[in-house]
Design brief:
34% of the residues lie in helices and 28% in strands. A hairpin with a 2-residue loop joins strand 4 and strand 5.
Length: 224
């Protein structure tokens, strides 16, 4: 089976006053379609940096990145954005909800990118609100929600359009233990249904849900 992701000698470097600082070094990685993978490592190891590159939110890197049959390293910014919208769901550590939109409107955004009909979008939003137990929050704005509620909305938004690839950066960081377990069980179910999932976490409990763990240290990937 063709891997959904192939990285070849991927590197990320930023300029500092002290000289170049490498955030990622010579990352070579293949992720099979339908895999559930965890990226672990200490703070500053490059975990979130790698996840943002995979999500095509960061374009300042060297090397090769193949997503299915697309050579991401050769795509324009516009082409990368289109590929992101059609293939990727992303759970950000800082939520990135749109402050001037209600919960329901935030959930509708990924569906609008995929040209889903209005009636189907309404049904999908209603179903997702119900699934996450946030029906009563649908007309509220992000600033009116607790951190845990914002986290649930962010996760709901990431999965509502059934992306082929789900990327999650500390997905249960603001949730209490029971909510966190429910989210990981949901991820496990989505993965069984065919969604490829890559999560960044410090939690060994969350990592245990995945089938493979890769570890980063100082930007280098440790040997598996």
């Amino acid at each position: 089976m063709q891997p959904i992701i192939r990285l070849k000698n991927l590197e990320k470097c930023v300029k500092t006053k002290a000289g170049p600082l490498y955030l990622l070094r010579q990352i070579n990685l293949e992720v099979e379609e339908g895999e559930f993978m965890t990226i672990m490592g200490p703070s500053g190891a490059g975990k979130s940096t790698l996840l943002h590159i995979l999500g095509m939110y960061d374009s300042a890197w060297e090397g090769e990145y193949h997503l299915e049959d697309r050579e991401v390293h050769k795509l324009s910014a516009k082409e990368r954005a289109a590929l992101n919208k059609s293939h990727v769901g992303f759970v950000f550590q800082q939520f990135h909800l749109l402050d001037d939109l209600t919960v329901a409107e935030n959930l509708d955004i990924p569906l609008s990118y995929r040209n889903v009909k209005g009636s189907q979008r309404q049904a999908a939003v209603a179903d997702t609100l119900d699934r996450f137990g946030i029906v009563g929050k649908k007309d509220l704005f992000p600033s009116q929600l607790s951190g845990g509620q914002q986290q649930l909305v962010a996760i709901a938004r990431a999965i509502i359009a059934k992306p082929k690839l789900l990327l999650a950066d500390e997905p249960t960081g603001n949730l209490h233990t029971e909510q966190g377990k429910e989210i990981m069980e949901l991820f496990k179910r989505l993965n069984r249904e065919g969604t490829t999932i890559i999560q960044v976490t410090h939690s060994e409990t969350n990592a245990a849900y995945s089938r493979r763990i890769i570890r980063l240290r100082d930007g280098w990937m440790e040997k598996e």
